[in-house]
Amino acid sequence: MEDKKANIIAAISILALVVVIIAARVSLKLSKTFYLIAGVDISLILAVFCFLIIRNRYNRERNLLVSRFVSEGRELRTEYSFLRKVAGVPTKFKLEDLEEATDGFRSLIGKGGSGSVFKGVLKDGSQVAVKRIEGEEKGEREFRSEVAAIASVQHKNLVRLYGYSSAVSANRPRFLVYEYIVNSSLDIWIFPEKGNRRRSGGGCLSWNQRYQVAIDVAKALAYLHHDCRSKILHLDVKPENILLDGSYRAVVTDFGLSKLIARDESKVLTDIRGTRGYLAPEWLLEHGISEKSDVYSYGIVLLEMIGGRRSISRVEVKETGKKKLEYFPRIVNQKMRERKVMEIVDQRLVETNELDEEEVMKLVCVAMWCIQEKSRNRPDMVMVIEMLEGRVMVNEPPDSDVVVVDLLAADDDDDGSSGGVRRVINVPRLQIQRERNFRLPSICSSIISPISPR
Ligand SMILES: Nc1ncnc2c1ncn2[C@@H]1O[C@H](COP(=O)(O)OP(=O)(O)OP(=O)(O)O)[C@@H](O)[C@H]1O
């Protein structure tokens, strides 16, 4: 634009100078004054020409430089974003980017205890799951260090965190941006649809697929527990946090509750967090939690995959018509002792006639080892993989006298509509003191019950 203006001004000036020469020639004839004016005019015209030539050359060079810088900058940006991806550095997204990606947070794909999850597509075409974290009270620094820890974890059976968006003001939500996993979570593939509660998608995973999922999840947890710089406890292992990719391979998600612990620390004390039905007994005891608490939750998930039912469910007593809580691990324990494991397998799988009783027994035994009441009796996840992949023989687990039936699982208000799953967040950790008048608070007033056959 500037160049065009300068060129027009130069052309007008040259034209004006030529007009001046012609006018001088007409009025002054070939006098001395005419030659003087003509000389000055011609010098000015030459000066304007020179100016135009120099200016155009300068502009051309400048434009060349600019375009070189732009393309170099673009290359640098591409390289930087590539390196970020390789290094797993999370991207900081603007709220507008996420609004655009999710079409204004329109396509809700799930809702959990800590927020809602929306499907989205980023500018580069990659599909993402955007989790809006609601009611989060963490400070910005704590949030960022958690994001960095999650993003630094890279394993094919762990969901990838692409980035995050910080809260712009105190009451605005934060977002986590994950890779999108197409087949949603394991729960809709192992639990049959209930009554009139409709859900979209899902079906019945075959035995082989379930067995493969068991191995995938074990590998993800073994990596978190044993192969990361700091040991990472998941603390909320449950079917809703196990996603299935296009080939029905498991991808573990939701490190929202994860705890990083130093390698030399074997146990940590923390507030009770996690989900009812999957919490290990030690959450309520004073000796703290460890990676073995994840092993316990994993064992419960194994049993749920085998049985196609929740570990705790309400069933109707025929005689009275009343509902009572049924604890599936107790039933499994009994059937295992009676050598009748096929009776506890998901009926839909039994009908396919594709079951190998020996493999079922192996998975049941591994699950029962994982839910041993004493954490030291449970295998670690590396041992679980060895057992599942057949490199280590699986012995029959001991018959526990007492299992603390997940103290947080039973709740008198539960009408069963939650399917036995409820999130427990930040319940202050119980300080169990051996005092004479000590009573368990109402949240855990229920059951310590025998698991051995009655
Ligand atoms: N990366 C993802 N790709 C595809 N679907 C996802 C992804 N992450 C979550 N979802 C879907 O969103 C649902 C809710 O996820 P979210 O992690 O918020 O909830 P949750 O695990 O059920 O609850 P909580 O946060 O209380 O543990 C999941 O069950 C799953 O169906």
UniProtKB/TrEMBL annotation:
PROSITE patterns listed in its UniProt record: PROTEIN_KINASE_ATP (PS00107), PROTEIN_KINASE_DOM (PS50011), PROTEIN_KINASE_ST (PS00108)
Q: Where is the chain membrane-spanning?
A: 7-28, 34-54
Family, according to the entry, reads as follows: Belongs to the protein kinase superfamily.
Q: Name one Pfam family in it.
A: Pkinase
Transmembrane helix as UniProt keyword: yes
As given in the record, the signal peptide range reads none
Identify the residues that bind ATP.
K131
Q: Where is the Protein kinase domain?
A: 103-394
The organism encoding this protein is Camelina sativa (False flax)
The taxonomic lineage of its organism, from the top, reads: Eukaryota, Viridiplantae, Streptophyta, Embryophyta, Tracheophyta
Question: What name does UniProt use for this protein?
Answer: Probable receptor-like protein kinase At5g20050
Report keywords, A-Z.
ATP-binding, Kinase, Membrane, Nucleotide-binding, Serine/threonine-protein kinase, Signal, Transferase, Transmembrane, Transmembrane helix
